[in-house]
Amino acid sequence: MKKEQVETSIKELFRKTVQKDAKIHNAYLLVDSAKLGVHLNLAEGATGSAACAQQPYYIASVSKLITSVLTSILVEKEMISYEDPISRYLEPDLLHNLHLYKGKDYTSDIKIKHLLNHTSGLHDFLEDSPKQAKSFVDHIIDEPDRLWTAKEAIVWAKEHLEPHFPPGQGFHYSDTGYHLLGLIIEKITEKPYGEVLRAYIFEPLQMKHSYLAPSEPMEKSEYPLADLFISNINITPYNSLSFMHAGGGIISTNGDLLKFMKALVQHEIISEKSLSQMKRDWGKFFIGIDYGYGVMNFKTIPVLMPQKYNVWGNAGSTGTFMFYHPATDAFLIGGLNHFRYHRKGIRLMLKSIDKLLKCDVS
């Protein structure tokens, strides 16, 4: 199939994905492969004004890959070690009974690496369900004016949720853990997390439209922030979105995320050795998907996960995704902007790979 046909096929796939789902109000897809000569930067949907491919949007848990790369930068600078206990950096009050499992406090056993690959055993304040209280998601919706600090989200989790296993003895996805990472990074650098992101990643890579909400980008976009939805409720203006912090609070654009992923793949922001370590030390996320230091790695599982889908990157609960597909030298980036649409976002990414693999290379 010729390059032009492949591009048309991906455009049609994206358009149909958005149009057949009434809950997708705005969506974004970037596909870039120098090897195939393919470059698409697409937007579909309308939220007051037509969606635009240059529009900034919340990247949700795709932020975790950026948080992990930032941590790796600090490791390379010998400001921190993956083996460091988190108790070295965080105050006793926050750590008190943070990881109380079956009557034993394992908090002092949690290391930086456990937070990065979700093997700490800590709860996930966003997805875990409290036994006798409303969920954190309900708080977001019911209390739109409430401002959440990272510490407040962690304390809420400590008061309402239970850890799942001792550190290093399992896998449980944890936004709580990434909030702790953000606070540790602030402690080490003596700067707010958003400023650290800007100094170490956004400015060096000229990601001019990227920032940690609610701060400001280096260059204000001429396009409005894309609307974000939970249960078809537009929560974009909610102050309660302040809860996202290091686990998911970055706002960016397809173009900026492409700059980041290219720099990561080409070892321009961290070394090849550092990237390999991020991929190597992993927990088992799902069958066919390992989770390293902020890196989802799709590996071959006969029938369930064919080799053609071997990609690495990260994805978010709002249908966001940012992956690299080595076989086609392709970057696949985008978002559907609706909470709990992570499977649909990944499905769109994998179907786009199917299209790319049909492209004639000449």
From TrEMBL:
Q: Which SUPFAM superfamilies match?
A: beta-lactamase/transpeptidase-like
GO terms for molecular function, please? hydrolase activity
> Per its UniProt record, what InterPro entries does this chain match?
AmpC-like, Beta-lactam-related, Beta-lactam/transpept-like
Tell me the enzyme class.
hydrolase
EC code: 3.-.-.-
| Source organism superkingdom | Bacteria
Record domain Beta-lactamase-related: where: 41-333
UniProt KW keywords: Hydrolase
| Keyword Cell cycle belongs to the record | no
Q: What is this protein called?
A: Serine hydrolase
